[in-house]
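yo

u said u wanted the structure for the complex thing, so here. seqs first:
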Amino acid sequence: MAEPITAIRAHPLAGRVHAGSGVAITLAPEAFRINLRARADALATLSGALSVELATMPGQSVTAGNRLALCLGPDEWLVIDVKNHPLTDLAAVEVLHSAVDVSDRNTAILVSGPSAADVINAGCPRDLSLAAFPVGACARTIFGKVEVVLHRPRATVFRMEVWRSFSDYAFQLLAEAARDQA
Amino acid sequence: MNSQPNRLVGKGRLTPAHKVRFTFDGKSMEGLAGDTLASALIANDIHLVGRSFKYHRPRGIVTAGPEEPNALVGITRDKARHVPNVRATVQELHDGLNATSQNRWPSLAFDVGEVNDLASPFLAAGFYYKTFMWPQAAWAKVYEPFIRHAAGLGTAPTEPDPDAYASRYGHCDVLVCGAGAAGLSAALVAAEAGLSVIICDENPKAGGALRHEADVMIEGIVGWDWAKATLSRLAGLSNVRVLTRTTAFGYQAQNMVSLVERVSEHLTDPSATPVRERLWQVRARHVVMATGAIERHMVFANNDRPGIMLASAARTYLNHYGVAVGRRVGVYTANDSAWAAAFDLKAAGIDIPAIVDARADVPEALVAKAARLDIRVLVGHAVTAAGGKLRVSSMCVARADGTGETEVIPVDAIIMSAGWTPSVHLFSQSRGKLRFETETQRFLPGQHAQDASCAGACNGAADTAGALSQGIAAAEAAIAALNAKGKASTTALTTTGGTSWNGSLIGAAPGAEAGKVVKAFVDYQNDVTAKDIRLAVQEGMHSIEHVKRFTTNGMATDQGKLSNMHGLAIAAEVLGKPIPEVGLTTFRQPYTPVTFGAIVGHARGALFDPTRRTPIHDAHVKAGAVFEDVGQWKRPWYYPRAGEDMHGAVNRECVTVRKTAGLFDASTLGKIEVVGPDAAAFLDLIYTNPFMKLGVGRLRYGIMCREDGFIYDDGVVGRLAEDRFHVTTTTGGAARVLNHMEDYLQTEFPHLDVWLTSVSEQWAVIAVQGPQAAAIVGAHVDGIDMSADAFPMMSVREGRICGVPTRLFRMSFAGEDGFEVNVPADHGRAVWDALMATAEPLGACAYGTEAMHVLRAEKGFIIVGQDTDGTVTPQDAGLAWAIGKNKTDFVGIRGLKRPDLMASGRRQLVGLMSADGSTVLEEGAQLVADPNQKVPMTMIGWVTSSYWSDNAGMPIAMALLENGFARTGEKLYASAAGGAGFVEVIVRDTQFLPTQKTGADHG
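structre next:
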C-alpha cells in the first residue's frame, strides 16, 4: 500500500529573506486559505461557523485568534488560518455559499518596517498612508505586473498574498524596490 | 587665458573657493560648485557651444533654464554612460564632468556642414517634401542616407545602461508643481492648514525667478533667501514631501501627474546612489500649477549668433552665478524686465552701450533710472541685424518704423526680451481650456478640466507680489475644495522691489518683416526662420498644425518653448486672422525629455515580466530538461539524454509513452472551481456540450464558443459533487476563460446561484499516460479503487496519493490509459518524485510539451490556438459531436446558425500525409491544388500542426482546408520550406494511429 511521503509543504519561496534599510521582507508562515463567496443573508450563519464576524465592507478585515477574514468584494472573502482549515468548519453548513480551498494557490510575503509602505508603493498604486489604508485594511490590487491581495496587520507591517508562480517576481520586485531610498 | 575671466568678484551666490574641474571638447576648465555647465562655460568666456541642426550655424547659450534650444551637448561618464542632447543650462557641474559639442565635424569652430547655410535657399521650409521627390530611384540610395545622416543630434550609447531606475506611486492632498514664489506660498499655506503636500521643482533649489530677481524682498528678507528658508521649513513638516531636481512632465486623467526625479545626474560618482532617476506617479486631490513663464527671444536678422541670449538668462548668470555674459552688452527688448537686467549689469560694471526698445512707449520710471545710470536709451527702435559669426560683434540699430539711418554699435553680447510666455504645458495636458488675452497677447489658463489651480507667472501674474498672492489664493481654493479642517496662518506676504514682467511682442521684430530676405530665427533648434513660416502659409498650410509639420517649427527637443508663439503670430499675420482663430498646437508630454530608463523603472531583466514556474520546476531542471516559454510559463520542452538531440529525445519520449508510460507536468493548465446549486446549468450554457446529466464522479471534454460560434477554448470538466465542478482550461486560456465565464455570469446569467474561483495554482497536475499508468499511479493511491470497472476512463475520484489529498482524473490526451493527478501545489514536487521513482524502473520517462503535441496529434486531438484561430467552429474542427443536440441555449448557439457558418465548403480540419512518406511539412505552409498555376496562386488552406511521428513511422500533419472533409484522398501541394517549391501531400483523416478501444478521450 502507498506510503505517505511527507506532510511538509514546500514553500515556493523557501528560505528567501531580504533586509533593506528600514524594511525587512520575509515569508509568512504556511497557512490554510479559502475563498468564500456568499450573499448577505448567509453571513450570520457563516460567521458563526467560522468563529469570525465577516466584515461586510470590501477593504475591511477581521481577525479572531489565528483566523483572518479579508473582505475583498461585496460577496467575497479570503479566510486565512495558520492552524485550522476553515473549510472543515464549513463542511456542515447548509446555507447557500461557495467555499473553495486555495491554501496552496497563494503564498504570503511580509513587508515590515518604517519604509514598508514606500517599498510597496514602488509597484502598487494604492494610497498606503494610514489615513487611507489604516491598520486592518485590505485590498486586491496590483504590484508591478501581478495581482496581489494586500493586508495591513500593523502600522508598519503589510501582508502581501500572491499566487505562488508570481511570488518570485513579487519578492524580487520588493527586494529591488527596497534598495531605493526616497 | 585667465581662469574664469567672466567670473565677477563679489557677485553671485556661489563660493569662489569651491572650485570644480570639467572638460569641454577635451579642454580642461574650472568652474564653481553650484554652476551649471552653461554658467561655467560663460565664466570661461565660451558662448559657442554647438551647431544648428539644418544649417550647421554656430550657436551659443540662449537661456539659463530647461527651455534651452541651442546649447545641447553630450555628457560622457564612461563607455556606457553617454547622454546626448543634454541642455548645458540644466546640467549641474560636477568634478570630472566631460562634455562635448554636437553636430559638428571636424571641429566646433570649423564645421563642414556649414555649407548648408550657404545652400539655404534650397533648404527652405518643406525641403524634405520637395527636394527628395524625384527621381524615385534616388530615394533609397541617395536621399534617405543623406537625410538619415543629417537627422538627429548627438549619438546614443551602444552599451547597456548600467544604472538602475526606480518608480514610486505617491498620493497627496495638494501637489504643487514649481517652487518659485507662487508654488512656495501655495505649498506653505496648504501645509499649514494640515493638508498633505508634495512640492516639486526641476531645479536643484527653490526660488524660480527669484534666482535672477535679486532686488525683491519678501517678508523683509531677500527673495532668494526667503525661498530657501521656506523650502527648508516645508521640508521639516511631516505632511510635506519636497522633491527638487524633479520635473512634472505629464498630467493625466484624475489628477495623476508624472514626475521624474534626477537622483545622481549632478553627482561626481553616479554609483553613490542606488538609482539614477526615480519616476513618481502622483495622484493628488488638488494640483497647483506654479510653472512660471518662459521669456521669448526677439526675432531679428542673425539673432542666433553666439553671445545673444535672453535678458533673464543674463541676469541669472550675473545675480546667481556671478558671471558676466559679456563686457559690452547690448539690450534689445519689448518688455520691462530686460531693463532690470541692463541695470544689474551696469551696476556690476558692465558696459551697456544702449537699451533698444521696440515699443513706442515705455514706463517713465525705467527711462529715468537708465538716465541715472547713464545708459543710452533708444525707444521706438529696433535691432535690425547682429554682426559677427562665431560670436556676436555688433548690433545694427534703426528706428522701428524703418525711417532714418542705421547705426552700428559694437557689442560682445546682446540680451533680449520679447516678453514672457506663460508655461501652460501642464494645464493644457490636464485638458484645461486656454483663453487668449488680447491686451497682453498671451494664452492663459481658462477653465479647468480637473481639480486644479494655476498660480504665478503661468497664470499671468505680472510681478513677484502677484505670484505670491496667487499662490496663497490657489492654496485657499484647495483648502476649501478639500474641506480641510486646519487654517493657514499665512494669509499675505509682503514684498518690496522687483520688476514688472509687462510688455510683449510676438512675431517678427521690425527689420524681419515680410519681404525681407534675412535669417531671423523663430525656432533655433530646427532652424526655422520667420520667412519659412510665411512660405508655409503661402504654400497653403493654413492650419497651425500643418505649418508646424511643414516647417518643423516647435518640433525639436525643446518642443517650441521659445518659438511657438512667434511662429503662431507670424502665421496669423500672413493669414490675416486673429491669433485665437489660427489656434495653438498641442502641448504633449513630456514637458522636457525623459529617459527611457525612468519610464521602464524596475521592469528590466528578471523583472521585465513575471517568469512563472510550476511547483515541479526544479525537478525538471535536475532532469536536464530544455524549457519552452509558453506565455509567462517555463515548461519542460523535452528531456534530452546524453548524445540526444531534440528530435531523438522527442521520438524516444513519444514511443515510451505508448509502449510503457510517461509523466508530464501539466500544472500550468487553467483550473476553475465552479460551485453552487446552478453550477451544472451554468456550464450547460457556457459549453456546447450538455452538462445537466453528467454524473457525479464523471468527466466530460467540453468545447466553449464565443457568441459568434467560433471555438474559444476547450478542456475537461469533472463533476465532484452535485453542486461542485472542477473545470480545466488551456494554459493560455486560464485567465481569459475565467473572465469570459464571469462576464456571462454577471451580465447574462445573474439569476444563477453559482460562483467561480480560480484554482489554477492550487493544484499541481501530473499527467501519467500509457499502458503502465495505472500501475504507477496505483502504487501510491489510498482510498481509490483503481480497477477499470470501479474507476473507468473519464472519471474523477477524490482520495489520497502519497499521503496527500488528490483529485484523480482518469483521462488521456494521448489516447492511452492515463491519469491526471491533481495534488495541492505545495506537495507537487514530492508527488512527482515519488511517481518518477516508481515509473523509471518500469522503463517509463518524463516527457515534455513537444512530445505531448506529437502524441495528441497522432490521435487527431486539436490544440485550441494552434489548430484553431478564432475562425473555426466546432463543426469545422470535426467536433460536431460535442454540440448538445437537444440544447436550446448556450453561448454561440445563435452564431453557429449564421448562414456563412453553416455553408458548405468552409475550411475544415483534416489530416495530411506527405506523399513521399518522409518530408515533415512546415507549420503554416500554404496549400494549393495546382503547383503550376500562375502567381498569385489560389491558396485553399494551410498546415496548422506538423510533426515526425515515430509511433506512426511517418510525418503527420493537420491542416485547415477549404471543403476539407470532402477532399479525403485528394492530392494537394504544400509550399516547402524556404520557398523551395512544393511538397506533394494527400488529404486524410486525423487518426494517424490505429484506434484501439480504450474509451479514451482527451483533455
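The first strand of chain B starts at residue 19 and ends at 24. Chain B has a mean pLDDT of 93.
cya
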